[in-house]
Structure formats: structure tokens, C-alpha cells
Write a structure and sequence with these properties.
Layout: E1 3-6, H1 13-22, E2 27-31, E3 42-45, H2 54-58, E4 63-66, H3 76-97, E5 102-108, H4 131-144, E6 149-155, E7 157-159, H5 170-173, E8 181-182, E9 184-186, H6 187-198, E10 206-208, E11 215-216, H7 217-223, H8 246-250, H9 260-266
Parallel strand pairs: 1-2, 1-4, 2-3, 4-5, 5-6, 6-10, 7-9
Antiparallel strand pairs: 8-11
Helix pairs in contact: 1-6, 3-4
Length: about 270
Amino acid sequence: MTVLVTGSTGLVGERLLPRLMEADLPCRVLVRPGKAYPEGIEAATGDILDPSTLPAAVRGVSAIVHLAAVFRTQDTDLIWKSNLDGTRNLIAAAKAHAPGARFIMASTSNVYNPDNPHPGREDDPVNPQHAYPASKVAAEKELRESGLNWSIIRFPFVYGDGDGHLESLPKYVSNWHPAQRMSTIHHRDVAKAIKFALDGRFDRRVVNIADGAPASIYELTGLLGVKMASSAEPLSNPWYLHVDSSLSRSLGFHCSVHSVYQAQQEGVI
């Protein structure tokens, strides 16, 4: 099994690759010219926005783990181009040159509507207004209708392994309600979920992956020594960014890092 990984130098990919290698999964990474990649991994030089580079990248692989995405930027055109057009290009290359490969796409729990009446479930209608989740919904649709053997994993807030993501949270949530809860997932369990998908356990499914302990913004920033102002005002969207992960559990997936507090205790935050 050769696994093609896109986005291998990103926040998730950089921490996923070593875990795939530890599991003895031969990996090939799609990297732009001049980009560094780990020793012992096969590299295909290319870009998801350049279709001419993708046949060589996908040829001979048994699975594609598509992590490449653009998120935190004000350039909405770049977000749509990368997340939708780039995914379309990769799907087309897979259909032409690796039609039997599993195509696993990382998506986001941000697709769920802020006013959802319960934690976001995979079968909930979604109509996100911001470019990043909207582009992900569009890319999901392309993959589901591709005819490939696909799976889509919707991740919530990803953290751990010293990635700095949690540490950056306070600057984005300073005006949020302190009681807003948010589902989280550690990189260790991101890798575990990807391995589940590679084994075929998520075939042709959209699956939420999250630990069982969504924490409030007040608690998460408190872990970092940042004190938010307290408030007992009603919370207008209590289920925003809180996802239902019961489907993944029914399929046999269970997190190894059950909360940010466990991660803190183990020193893997």
C-alpha cells in the first residue's frame, strides 16, 4: 500500500506523516518545488493547482490522504481555488490514473450551521457562509459524486504535539462568549482516524471525529493562563462548534486522548 499525502507540510500533515511511517505505511508526498520533506519518504513534485503534475503523483497509489487546504487568510479567491479547484484536480487525476485508490479527504466541523439545534451530525443540512467551510462543503460534494471509493473525515479544533494551534486561540476568541464550548481532537487521534479510513472502516461515509470532552472557551484559554471575562448571559448558539461523534464510535473508533486535560497531564499538548 502506497499512500499519497497532500498537505504534508501543514499543521496536520507534518504530525501525521511520522505516525504513518511508524505504522509501516509507505508514503509518497506531493510537494512544491523546493519544499523540504522527511527522509525516507518518496516525493512527487507538483501542486494540486497544476493538473499536469498530478498523474505522476497518483499513479500506483492505493490510497490518497488529501489534507491540503487554505484556511486562515482574507483571500477568499485563494481559499476557493485551493480547496475546491485543487480537490477537483486531484479527483480527476485519481479517476484517470488510480481509480481503485481510496480517496480520504480531511474536512472540518466548521461546516455545521451556527444555529444548529444539537451537536453537529453528519446528516444535518449545512449551509456555511464563510469561504473556508463553504469551499469544504463544495469539495465534499465533488468527492461524494466522483464514483471513487471515498471517505470524508470532519475534524474539529485540532491541537497537540506542540503545534501552537491551541496557544493561538486567545487572539481569535477574545470577543466570544466564555461559555461557548468547542469540540477538540488531538493529533494522535487524527492519525488514528486516518488509519481507520485507510483500513476501509469509513468507506463512503462522512464521519465526525472528536474527543468526548468539548471544553468551553473560558476553560481552554484558562489552560494557557489567559483569563477571559466571566459572563452569565445566555449563550445564543450553544451547539456551535460542538459535534456529535457517535457515528465514529459505532464504527469502532475511540480516542486515545480523551480531553485537553489528559493531553496536558501527559505533556503532549
